[in-house]
Amino acid sequence: MDAEYEDRWCKYCMIKTKQEIIFMPEIPTYKRRRQYKCTRCGKKSWLQGRRPSAESVY
């Protein structure tokens, strides 16, 4: 399986780096989040998922 990368700001390095996507939920919701790993410092961080519009009504 090939690794997927996104350009994101690392909250530890404080610069924009390529970050490897470690975990991505099938359906991003408020409680299901993505996990990234910075290629520069190696720290892992969670990104809050986006809620679908139907879920934000409740």
Verbal overview:
The structure is a single chain. The protein has one helix and four strands, in the order ββββα. By secondary structure, it is mainly beta. It has a single domain, classed as N-terminal domain of TfIIb, CATH 2.20.25. Strand 1 and strand 2 form a beta hairpin.
In a nutshell, what does this entry contain?
The longest helix is centred in the C-terminal third of the chain and has 4 residues, at 53-56. This protein has a single domain (5-53), classed as N-terminal domain of TfIIb (Single Sheet). It is mainly beta.
Largest sheet: 4 strands, antiparallel
* Low-confidence sequence ranges: none
Instruction: Quickly give the CATH architecture.
Output: Single Sheet
Strand order of the largest sheet: 1-2-3-4
Number of strands: 4
SSE layout and pairings?
Layout: E1 5-9, E2 16-23, E3 34-38, E4 44-47, H1 53-56
Could you list some keywords that capture this structure?
7% helix, 4 strands, N-terminal domain of TfIIb, globular, 58 residues, mainly beta
